[in-house]
Amino acid sequence: SLHFTPPDTGLTKDAGDTSDKEAIVEFRGVWKRFGELDVLKDINLSVRRGEVVVIIGPSGAGKSTLCRTINRLETIDKGSILVDGKPQPIEGKELYEFRAGIGMVFQSFNLFSHKSILENVTLAPRKIRGRDKASAQADAYRLLDMVGIRSKANSMPAQLSGGQRQRAAIARALAMDPKVILFDEPTSALDPESTQEVLATMQQLARQGTTMIVVTHEMSFAKSCADRVVFMADGAIVETANPETFFSAPESERARSFLASVR
Ligand code: ADP
Ligand code: MG
User: Fold this and answer.
1) For a pLDDT cut of 70, what percent of the chain falls above it?
2) Helix boundaries (H) for the chain
3) Relative to the alpha carbon of 56, which ligand is closest?
4) 62 lines ligand 1 (CB under 6 A)
């Protein structure tokens, strides 16, 4: 079975400079308000191709909202978000196709419960990309194999463990060859063993150069897989650093107290 093992320091993914690569997601002065509450306050963040950015912070910090603005599941009030260098489409078919090009893995409710795992993975490539059944299925089997659940292709989601369901959700996201995959607390509803399976799959994606934005409380994942850690609190990015710096010497008092609370 899959097990997530944080690599030795010598094997840690190079957290070096990716600034020469193009931005896949770029926030420029983004503000978002719910009623009286500023949920995102002047967010500036650039995620480059192949980068793994891990977002951490206390509950209510705005992490999920930040993720949801990227594919326009939430609109913004001020600023702009560029994806792959382009403004987000506003509506209609363009928005629908744009969303399909951004992978999203949530805490739960990721799969269509009345469709088999294979159908879940092939649905969007067939409906949105017009892929023929045979080639979409060939791709799906390859991806299910990669995430370790090929034998579950004809099962229904309810027949899978939580970890297997999340890995199916990852395969479904990958089937659309996404520019970026957003993970919003993908393991927080899982038991420890399932958590390790999903983290191992995410680690594999990170090593393959997948562009990933990951909201998680799994500090081991952040330490070993993040190129950068973004610490959010009260709607703002308080601190951005490479994981070594962030976990050994966080700059802000807010980050220090957060880290003390999760350790
Ligand atoms: P996090 O994911 O970091 O826990 P969220 O992005 O879910 O934070 O929420 C940030 C803040 O925005 C919270 O105070 C939350 O209550 C509020 N919020 C989130 N979604 C909505 C909504 N649809 N309507 C009103 N307030 C919301
Ligand atoms: Mg959240």
Assistant:
1) 92
2) 63-70, 92-100, 117-127, 133-146, 162-174, 192-207, 219-225, 243-248, 253-262
3) 1
4) yes
Averaged over 199-216, what is the pLDDT? 97
**Six-digit token string for 119:** 């159908």
Q: 43 in ligand 1 pocket by Cβ < 6 Å?
A: no
Nearest to 176 by CA among 131, 141, 208: 131
Q: Which of 17-21, 40-44, 242-246 has the lowest mean pLDDT?
A: 17-21
Strands 86-87 and 78-83 come out as antiparallel
> Measured between alpha carbons, how far is 62 from 27 in angstroms, rounded to an integer?
14
ipTM: 0.98
Q: Determine the residue of 30, 33, 39, 40 to mutate for testing ligand 1's pocket, defined as the one with the most ligand atoms within 8 A of the Cβ atom.
A: 39
Q: pLDDT digits over 76-128, tens only?
A: 999 999 999 999 999 999 999 999 999 999 998 789 999 999 999 999 999 99
Ligand 1: does its nearest atom lie under 6 Å from the Cβ of 64?
yes
Chain CA centroid to CA 178, Å: 11
Asked if residue 1 has its Cβ within 6 Å of ligand 1, the reply is: no
Distance 63 CA to ligand 1 centre (A): 8
* Residues whose beta carbons lie less than 5 angstroms from ion ligand 2: 63-64
Q: What is the pTM of this model?
A: 0.92
The tokens describing 188, both together, are 């927080």
